[in-house]
Design brief:
The protein is built from 7 helices and 5 strands, in the order H-E-H-E-H-H-H-E-H-E-H-E. By secondary structure, it is of the alpha/beta class.
Length: 168
C-alpha cells in the first residue's frame, strides 16, 4: 500500500461550554449503567476486518456493529433513551443514576411523574430509537417526518409503539 494515513492536530482553543460536562466520564458511566439496566441489553459484537487491516497496512481493524442494538437495526436508540431518562430525572428531582429501567417502568414512577410526550423530527434511526424507548419506558413519542415513502415511515415506528406520525 502506497498511501499513508494522514492526521492533523486539533489546534482549536479550549472552550468554556457549560454543556460539556454531559460528556464527562461520570456521565458516561451513568449512561452505560442506565442502558445495561434494560432487559433487552446485550453487548454489541465486534467484527474483525482482516482485509481492511491489510489494505490499511495495520495489524487489526474492528468494527463495532451497532445494527443489533436492542434488535432495532438502529444504533441511535442510546442517545434518545438516555435523554428521556435525564429529562424524567430532572422533573422528579432525582439523578439519572437513580432511575434504572426497573424504576422508570414502575407504577411508583408513573404515579410520581405521569407520562410525557417526546418529540423528534427525523426519518431515520433516531426516530426509531425515540419511538422504541418511549414505548419501553411507558412514555409517548411523536416522530415528525419529511415526506417519505410509507414503507420508510412504518420502518421507523416499532410495532405497538404509541405513535403519531406527521409527514410534511
Amino acid at each position: 500500500m502506497d498511501q499513508k494515513i494522514q492526521w492533523a492536530v486539533n489546534h482549536m482553543p479550549k472552550t468554556d461550554d457549560k454543556n460539556l460536562p454531559v460528556m464527562g466520564l461520570e456521565e458516561i458511566r451513568k449512561a452505560r449503567t442506565f442502558h445495561e439496566s434494560f432487559p433487552q441489553y446485550t453487548k454489541t459484537p465486534l467484527t474483525k476486518l482482516d482485509h481492511m487491516a491489510e489494505y490499511l497496512g495495520v495489524k487489526e481493524v474492528y468494527l463495532k456493529d451497532e445494527s443489533y442494538r436492542f434488535g432495532l437495526n438502529a444504533f441511535k436508540v442510546l442517545g434518545g433513551s438516555f435523554a428521556m431518562a435525564r429529562y424524567i430525572a430532572s422533573e422528579t428531582g432525582k439523578d439519572v443514576s437513580e432511575l434504572p429501567y426497573s424504576v422508570l417502568t414502575s407504577d411508583q414512577l408513573k404515579k410520581e411523574f405521569g407520562q410525557a410526550t417526546f418529540f423528534t423530527a427525523t426519518d431515520g434511526n433516531h426516530g426509531r430509537g425515540v419511538a422504541w424507548a418511549a414505548n419501553r419506558l411507558g412514555q409517548k413519542a411523536v416522530v415528525h417526518m419529511p415526506k417519505a415513502p410509507l414503507r420508510r415511515v412504518w420502518r421507523t415506528s416499532p410495532k405497538k409503539a404509541p405513535r403519531w406520525i406527521s409527514r410534511r
